[in-house]
Amino acid sequence: MAQIAKLEVQTKIKSSADKFYGFFRNNITLLVNVFPEVYKSIEIVKGDGKSVGSVRFWKYFLGTPMVTKERVEAIDDEKKSITFCAFEGDITKYYKSVMATLQVTKDGGGSLVKWSLVVEKANQDAPPPNIYLDMVAKDPIDFPLLTNLETKLPKPLTLLGKD
């Protein structure tokens, strides 16, 4: 019988929903500039890296060097939601399927960032997928003024919104 786990984490940030979502929608490959200790490279291998069907090859470090291929499964700009599917690499040693969804909503002067992770374990001995949720939620990127971030990122930077 399939063992499916769903984990969620929600974080409040100071940044506008448009800016935070815009970073993941249009500039996700720049995570290597923001968190170089975790993300070593993100290469677009199919598509433009921004639209449904695009595939990216990730090299990252979670206690040991790892690689993963993921595909953009769904994008809803109105709801500020993106769904990714990891389908190759180290992550598939433990999980048959991995779906991650980012959703950003306005919350007062800031935003709420919600990450959802749905995994199907490859076998009953597979560890819980908490490490992957921790990876995306441990230090959420915040864009209150973009001041510190802009020094780490190459130009041009495409974000949604003007605030």
TrEMBL record:
All residue ranges annotated as the Bet v I/Major latex protein domain in the record: 2-148
GO biological process per UniProt: defense response
The protein's name: Bet v I/Major latex protein domain-containing protein
Annotated organism of origin: Tetracentron sinense
Family listed: Belongs to the MLP family.
PANTHER family: POLYKETIDE CYCLASE/DEHYDRASE AND LIPID TRANSPORT SUPERFAMILY PROTEIN (PTHR31338), POLYKETIDE CYCLASE_DEHYDRASE AND LIPID TRANSPORT SUPERFAMILY PROTEIN (PTHR31338:SF16)
TM stretches of this protein: none
Pfam families linked to this entry: Bet_v_1
Matching SUPFAM superfamilies: Bet v1-like
Family matches, as CDD domains: Bet_v1-like
